[in-house]
Amino acid sequence: MPLRVELKPFERIVVGESVIINSGSRTSFLIDGEAAILRERDTVTAETANTPAKRLYFCIQMMYLKNDIARHWASYLGFLAGLRQAVPGAPATGSIQSIIMFLPAHSIRRSRKRES
Fold this sequence. Notes:
Elements: E1 3-7, E2 12-15, E3 18-21, E4 27-31, E5 37-39, H1 52-66, H2 69-86, H3 95-102, H4 108-115
Antiparallel strand pairs: 1-4, 2-3, 2-5
């Protein structure tokens, strides 16, 4: 089933490894296929990944957009350890645990949905 996307003027969306930039008017379109899709407002850049949670999010974002879990796996584990160290009393349940469970199964899209 296609994904309906509505973009405000000059809003951006990442589709696969491309960025679509809307012109000066509101628009909507359908995307059909298996490409990674992420609104610019939901992205974190390497420069803005300045907390343990944002660094982990950035790593998961790269896994999703590049469709390459193996390449980023070591970084993911390091950022996850950093997040756990930053929040030492946090139980291993909730959002972090759901992400951990889904990544090995290569379900990045599902783990990102559960974060929201």
